[in-house]
Amino acid sequence: MEFLNALWGYIALSAPYLLLGLTLSGFIKQFIPMEKVKKWLGRDNFSSVMKAAFIGVPLPLCSCSVIPTAVTLRKSGASKASTSAFLISPPESGLDSISVTYAMMDLPMTILRPVAAFFSAIVAGLFQMFFNKEEEVVEQTQEVQKSCCGSGMAKEISKDPIGTQIKNAFKYGFKDLVDDIAFWLLIGLVLGAIIQVLVPENFFELMSVNQSRFLILAVGIPVYICASATTPIAASLILKGMSPGTALLLLLVGPATNASNIMVLQKYIGKKGVALNVLAVVLVALGFSFFADFLYTNFLETNWAVGDLHNHAHITWWEKLSGVILSILILKGVMKEKVIPWFKKKGSDSCCG
Fold first, then answer.
1. Would the pLDDT of 59 be above 50?
2. Which of 134, 127, 231 is nearest to 187 (CA)?
């Protein structure tokens, strides 16, 4: 019963902000012309890297679905530098995960997360420019690799009436996108509730902050954790004594790197390029981790919203309603993407499983 109460608390607390994030993500996906993005990112210079990092921060692309989008950009003429920048910022942030961060943590962490993602992307792009020069001109082609996680952003914006485009925006946010992240979001919520119930108070005070950081890096780099799913886990770990900076490290490293994507990317930016991307993520994430701990130690208080999960009297009626809607969407997505394909013996085709 305690576990179910904690799980419902996480769902109800995050639901209004996540539903808002899904809505905004749908409109961004629908109304950002992909052809313009390709033109912005085509040159091997700092301006293209900046644009790629900036554009990628709010985009609703997980660590898996960003791959076909980045491949499309690369094949359409985008440089290694701008492609690498684009590969990093969307998985680390995205409007859906930013909104959940605000729901479960606080405003400073909500700001630090996308800012760190932006700088991670810039550093990765600069590393590619200086240490992984273009060896040949990329063939111009319109070939698109389909995402195993649902639709990416390779499709050009349609010329449909505005009403149809708005309908498509909601369809993407509340159908395609939520189906993509449903399984991993559920895993994150369940793990957050388990940590809340089973992990002893002040557990992480038994180890040093640097030991905690090393543990997060060791687990987060090779393992896939989507951005939205990391948030309840990080919030729960903070309540058990983990420093805010170490929690930020988890929010950045987990979504941006994983073993399967590293294997795919070697073909397009090379092994050296992949290593530079991982190095950029780790260095910037560590830097922001120390910076966050400095801020919270000297200037800020960790008055996390998730700290009141045990008190259901604080959950308003609209949070409860949003929680019910989110629960239905998550269950629908898990059924569609995991349960039904498993019974049809097609689950092994997913690169996100």
1. yes
2. 231
